[in-house]
């Protein structure tokens, strides 16, 4: 029998050892993650609330933004609360099923967010390049179908990768050098030559994601060429201002993903890889509400009206 199969281990649970096993660092990590998590929840729930109750925010762009905030709430909730509890209780175990579920949900929400960002790019293209056909192209039915397709594609993406990752046989220890279950960390535990299927899935998904990225770039080339033809400076600035938040979010999302990919494939310390993983799992859901609210006059007005309404109910 080959040596790799004699060393094969039946995994019933994993140990998530992303952070050093030091009580001070564990407490600091739990406190920092709690503050970040609370800020992400408050910011995204605020956007969901405003885009739901304010009549001026019932447009396709804010409908997509509401779904983006819902995705971010779910995305950060998959990893951070578990990590906080692990640090506070000094228990780093996660069951085999729990690890598979966490891996699926992380990829599911990340894939859904990427698909939704492509849809949002199409919305900006329709609004600026095809304004006369915008209501037809972005009807309520079309928006619902595009959002549904985004969630469905994320589900398929997560299912493919969790199947590919857990189709392998594991050898050796069950220690995952990460604060959550992710594909690269789990594949390091696989027996030699066992991760060919998942590697094929990764290559195929990267190719598909690259094609989608090219389509997004093409749409923005059309957008910029249309905006530059607007005669008034005020008109150009107004058109650009509707694209800047989306471009910022896309840049943050893709940049964090690329940095993470490079870190996983370059020789670097486990601490550096863990910090970069924090960057792509925690930072986008926390910063997205700030990006979309700080520069958005409609969001500021809706927030002002909500605060005024609450104040008038408290102090009639």
From TrEMBL:
Source organism superkingdom: Eukaryota
Transmembrane helix recorded as keyword: yes
UniProt entry keywords in alphabetical sequence: Cell membrane, G-protein coupled receptor, Membrane, Olfaction, Receptor, Sensory transduction, Transducer, Transmembrane, Transmembrane helix
Subcellular location: Cell membrane
Membrane topology listed for this record: Multi-pass membrane protein
Cross-referenced PROSITE patterns: G_PROTEIN_RECEP_F1_1, G_PROTEIN_RECEP_F1_2
Keyword Transmembrane helix: yes
Matches recorded under InterPro entries: GPCR_Rhodpsn, GPCR_Rhodpsn_7TM, Olfact_rcpt, Olfactory_GPCR
Record field: transmembrane: 28-50, 62-80, 100-122, 142-160, 200-223, 244-263, 275-294
Domain G-protein coupled receptors family 1 profile: 43-292
Protein family membership: Belongs to the G-protein coupled receptor 1 family.
Name of the protein described by the UniProt record: Olfactory receptor
Provenance organism: Echinops telfairi (Lesser hedgehog tenrec)
